[in-house]
Design a protein that fits this description.
- By secondary structure, this protein is an alpha/beta fold.
- It is built from 15 helices and 17 strands.
- The strands form four sheets. A nine-stranded parallel β-sheet has the order 4-15-14-13-12-11-7-6-5.
- β9 and β10 form a beta hairpin.
- α11 runs antiparallel to α14 and α14 packs antiparallel against α15.
Length: 371
């Protein structure tokens, strides 16, 4: 499934061989929460060069539901995106629901944000939903907690995550014997907050279960940025060198560069598309807020070094106008640009790693930002 091609320091370049695509790493996965990347279609994603996107198990479970995906043979044909999909387990959504979710011994009970109906996610049921999606990569259910957290809650989170991971792997192997999970890989999720003790315990227990890949979960949930970096740096060497490492839900371009420097291969985050819709655009020289008056007469492209459709087609002034006028076309232009920026950043990062010039690439990245 994963072949490690090159390294430069701790930065890695590899290839993921999945049922629907070959994915070069490091890779950023656009987030398609409801089986779609907001304001974009499958052709847009193809033209951007995206090989894998993320679908959200919680949202697709509630709407349109497993029956619809079963009818269409999975999320690929339903959405029209011919590349690969990674689906999360819904654990983060349960975490974010706060008082509307309750952790039980066998899973997470929650109230739908749509109609208030009650549902239960178990290690087995979230895999059933992801099999209905026919996801190329399926994440197991984990016990995610906010930080800071006390020692007892960290211990409970790690123990529950391991127990649910073991149940998930057993269920997955059963489905494979039934011929129902042939093209679907499964990843475990390491928890433990920013504690080296608990991260080591979680990683050790999950590595014993021999997943196809491993994610670092439970970060960017309240801890300081440097604590997150230190935790990544401590955790990645605990994971198998020949399997992919996925940092969930992170983050800024700077976060991605620092995580790659510490041995991470895969990323996802709503930031490029969500921030685009709110007026923030990422450039080679840092971020800009297009809603600001300084762009009203600006004839330049969003980013002078960018070759995306938006940068080649419209000015900052026009995008400023579209945003101020609340025109829907703004969302498409801005999302296309931000995702192109993230995907191009990963492409260039990979080139630097293969050429063993990661240090120079990282230094140039920061120099353009004046950092």
């Amino acid at each position: 499934m994963f072949f490690l091609q090159a390294s430069s320091g701790s930065a890695r370049a590899g290839v993921l061989s999945l049922a629907h695509s070959l994915v070069q790493t490091p890779v950023f996965m656009p987030v398609g929460t409801q089986a779609c990347v907001k304001s974009l279609d499958a052709l847009d994603l193809q033209n951007l060069g995206a090989k894998i996107i993320l679908a959200n198990t919680y949202h697709t479970y509630l709407r349109p539901g497993a029956e619809v995906f079963g009818k269409f043979g999975g999320v690929h044909s339903f959405s029209g995106f011919g590349g690969s999909f990674l689906s999360d387990s819904g654990g983060f959504q349960a975490f974010s629901l706060g008082g509307n979710a309750k952790k039980l011994e066998n899973g997470v009970e929650f109230a739908s944000h749509i109609d208030g109906s009650r549902h239960l996610f178990t290690p087995q049921s979230v895999l059933d939903m992801q099999l209905a999606l026919n996801s190329d990569i399926m994440m197991v259910l984990d016990d995610l907690i906010a930080l800071p957290a006390d020692r007892d809650r960290l211990a409970q989170s790690v123990d529950t995550t391991t127990r649910w991971a073991r149940q998930s792997k057993t269920y997955y192997e059963r489905k494979k014997r039934e011929g129902k999970a042939e093209g679907n890989h499964i990843f475990g999720i390491v928890q433990g907050g920013v504690s080296q003790e608990f991260r080591a315990k979680s990683a050790s227990e999950l590595v014993e279960l021999d997943f196809h890949g491993y994610a670092l979960g439970g970060l960017a949930v309240g801890e300081e940025t440097q604590q997150m970096y230190d935790t990544i740096e401590f955790s990645t060497p605990l994971l198998p060198r020949d399997k992919p490492r996925y940092l969930m839900g992170v983050g800024t371009p700077e976060n991605l560069i620092e995580a790659i420097s510490r041995g991470v291969d895969m990323f996802d985050c709503v930031m490029p598309t969500r921030n685009a819709r709110n007026g923030t655009l990422f450039t080679s020289f840092g971020r800009i807020n297009i809603k600001n008056q300084q762009y009203r007469l600006d004839e330049g492209a969003i980013d002078s070094e960018c070759e995306c459709y938006a940068c080649k087609s419209v000015s900052r002034a026009y995008l400023h106008h579209l945003f101020r006028a609340n025109e829907l076309s703004y969302h498409r232009f801005a999302s296309l640009h931000n995702l192109h920026y993230y995907l191009e950043l990963m492409r260039r990062a990979r080139e630097a790693i293969v050429a063993d010039k990661w240090g120079e690439f990282r230094a140039e990245f920061y120099a353009k930002r004046g950092a």
